[in-house]
Amino acid sequence: MNAILKEIEYNNGEFPEAQLKEIINRKEELIPELLDILKNAKENYEDVLENHNYFAHIYATFLLAQFKENKSFKLIVDLVSLPKEIPDDIFGEYLTEDLHKILASVCGGDTEPLKRLVEDNSVNEYVRCAAIKSFIVLLGEGVLSQGEIIEYYKSLFEGKLEREFSQVWNELIYDSCEVGPSELYEHIKKAYEDELVDEECISLEEVDGAIKIHDVEKFPKLKEEGYAFFKDTIEELGCWGCFTRNTSEPKSQFMQGINKMNKNKNKTKKKHVKATKKKQRKK
Question: What is the pLDDT of residues 8-29, one digit of tens each?
C-alpha cells in the first residue's frame, strides 16, 4: 500500500485533511490502490468488522465517488450486498446519509445493478432504500428522465418489490413524491390500503401535499435538496463526530448543527421503523 494511503488506513481520531488533499491531487496514480482497498474489504470483511478503527474502505468509497470512478461501482455494490446487518456494521451511518449519492456517482448511468439491489430482499433494507433513492439523484443530474424513473417505480409497485411492510416501501413513497406523485398516485394509495407503509414516516396526506407542490414546481431544486452526485470527501467526512479537525476554515456553527440534526434524524427514523416492524409482525 502506498505510504500516503497507509497513513489513513486507521482512524486515530484526527481528521487526515492534508493526506486526503494529497490523495485527491494524485488521484490518477492512486485510484488503482483505492480500488484494491475495496476489493480487499469485500474479501476480508470479517477482519474489517473486528477492527473498528479500520477506515481505509470508507475513505476509498468516498474518494472514488468524488472521482466518479466507474470501476468502483461493482466493488461498492458487492460490499453493500453482504448479508443482513454486515453493510451497516462496515459503513455505519453513511448507509442512510450518502450511499444514494455514491451509487449514482459511480454507476456511469448503468441502472441494472441498482435495480438488482432494490429488488433483492436478501439485501440490507437501507442499502435497498439508497438504491431506490439513487434514481432521484440521476434525475437531478439529468442522467435519467422523469418518464424512465416513473416507469421503473411503477414496476416496483406492480410486483417487483415484495408486498411486505418495510422501510423500502417508505422510501419508494418518499421518492415517488419527488419524481411524480400524480402519475403514481393510484399505486401509492394501494400501498397504504395494503398496510405496506409506515404512516408515521410519511402519511397519505403528506403525499397529497407533495402532489400540489410537484404539479406546480416539478423538480427544479433537486440538486439543491441534495439529490446530486457526491462532490467533496473532505467537506463531508470532516464534520463526522469520530474526528477532530484542525483547519483554518471550520464549518459554521449553524452548518455543524444542521449536520448533527440530520444524523440524529436518520438514527431516530431507523429505530422507529425497526420498532414499528416488530409491532407489525405481532399483528
Answer: 999 998 999 999 999 999 999 9
Other beta carbons less than 10 A from residue 45's beta carbon = 18
pLDDT band at 259 (very low <50, low <70, confident <90, very high): very low
What value does the mean pLDDT take over residues 212-228? 76
CB 235, CB 252: distance < 8 Å: no
Asked if residue 270 has pLDDT above 60, the reply is: no
Instruction: Return phi, psi of residue 11, to 5°.
Output: -90, 115
**Amino acid identity at 13:** G
Look up the pTM and report it: 0.85
3-state secondary structure string, the chain?
CCHHHHCCCECCCECCHHHHHHHHHCHHHHHHHHHHHHHHHHHCHHHHHHCCCECHHHHHHHHHHHCCCHHHHHHHHHHHCCCCCHHHHHHCCHHHHCHHHHHHHHCCCCCHHHHHHHHCCCCCHHHHHHHHHHHHHHHHCCCCCHHHHHHHHHHHHHHHCCCCCCHHHHHHHHHHHHHCCCCCHHHHHHHHHCCCCCCCCCCHHHHHHHHHHHHHHCCCCCCCCCCCCCCCHHHHHCCCCCCECCCCCCCCHHHHHHHHHHHHHHHHHHHHHHHHHHHHHHC
For residue 282, give Cα distances in angstroms to 187, 198, 276. Answer: 26, 15, 10
Whether the CB-CB separation of 131 and 118 falls below 8 Å is answered with: yes
Q: Are 19 and 60 in contact (CB under 8 A)?
A: no
Instruction: Supply the pLDDT for residue 246.
Output: 56
